[in-house]
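Need tokens for this chain, all 288 residues.
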Amino acid sequence: MKEKKKSIEVSVESTLFEILTSNLRDISNKKIKSYLKYKMVEVDGIITTNGSTIVKPGSSVIIYFTKKVLPVYDLSIIYEDKDLIAIDKPSGLLSISNSKEKELTAFRLVSDYVKTQNKNSKIFVVHRLDQGTSGVLLFSKNLKLKEKLQKNWGDLVLKREYVAILEGETPPRGTIKNYLTMNHFQIVHSTKDTEKGHFAITHYKTIKYKNKRSLVEVNIDTGRRNQIRAHMSEAGNPVVGDKKYGAKTNPINRIALHASKLYLIDPRTSQVLEFKSPVPKELKRLVL
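Here are the structure tokens for all 288 residues:
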């Protein structure tokens, strides 16, 4: 039996609740709130429970009229020792909990895993990936090591490489340097105000151009929130599937951004640790 649902293409910026009430006039506000509560509403492919969320024009909202079965994520471990664990995070999974989702996170999956080995084990976030971004994500099992990594992150990280599929044709290579800040819609953008913004550097190299899309390797010298997405969008080549930053296409129902490599100096041994994640097949197919 096909799942009953309603799709809405948003044309005017509104809150999610306003969009739902204006498109579901025969359904009570109480019922609509229950759709949100029970995770039956998606915005651009992401389950959203907060009716106050601002939804931009061009976004897609889907209401499911039966309770959705939440996705099940397998834990793919790239590396593990007594103090560190690196996983291959799938697209769509939060790194840590937020106001909308408390349980379904990479942090919870890794925490549950280490507790199977020792019920008193704890994990700590070292860095984060956006929900839509897949790839290498590092956690620490040791609070002191986590603090040492975060405090010296800029000096310890030798490479943070991403693979992205961008809309349009990009130059053979380039570097973007500017200050980034965030507006009240939670959208990151450049600013000339050096006190308000945070300095960000993004390097990119074009590997292939086909089907009006560019496959690029991206290396970042700084790890600002949404840095790659904002930089490439402002350069005129948004990440495929990233409607928040101006993408016009979403052929694989995800943001086409993948954290492929993380190389860092292990503060315990001074040796270089290399964490790698293969580029997902669905991204490669976009430029075949």
